[in-house]
User: Fold DSBA-like thioredoxin domain-containing protein from Zasmidium cellare.
Amino acid sequence: MGGARYVSPGGDRPHLTQLLAVIQKNGVNMLNAIRTRLERVGRENGIQFNFESKIGSTRDSHRLLNYARQHGPGWDKSLLEAIFRWHFEEGGDITSHEGLTKVATSVGLPEDEVSKLLASDENAAAVDTLASLARQKGIYSVPTIEINRKRINVEGAGDVSEFFEAIINARKLMPEEELRVELRWEKNKMDDAQLEHVLGLQDSSLPPLAPPGAIRTC
Assistant:
């Protein structure tokens, strides 16, 4: 995770089920349409959404993920996937320290360290800073996707064709000199002739391979 964006940052706000949160945000008239779409997209991706899961402040889960990242490579990814499965499919309460501890230990993190962290304010400053930076950059939804440092308007559950079209459009808008810099992301990997050849493909319908950092999910 390259940043942090809190869901329901106010810790004193009442916890809502996913179902009630959808109604509160979009109105009861939109409930069936939104639920049907989420269920359809979920089935297509092997996800069975549980609308009774509790929504609240995600600050503690961000603190826990920050700790997992410090634990070693790959730990934060494993933990994040476990949290998502527990919260979105198993009806977990994202604010529950007991629940978060069980999820963390299920992926192999030490229970005593996890419990101690959640009972304290450890890592709070770090994730608060990341959340503040996200707000300063105008990030108010997840995921927020950037291609070639340009933010695109595609929802996380968008169709593959939407992402493909966004990549093509971002490439067309990219200034040639900026593209030259991006293409040289590995020093001396591409000589001038190869570079000119790639630049000559700008009208092609196929996107180039993106260098590291060209596509970012916030």
In short: The CA atoms of residues 127 and 189 lie 37 Å apart. The chain has two domains: 16-136, 145-217. DSSP finds ten helices and five strands in the chain.
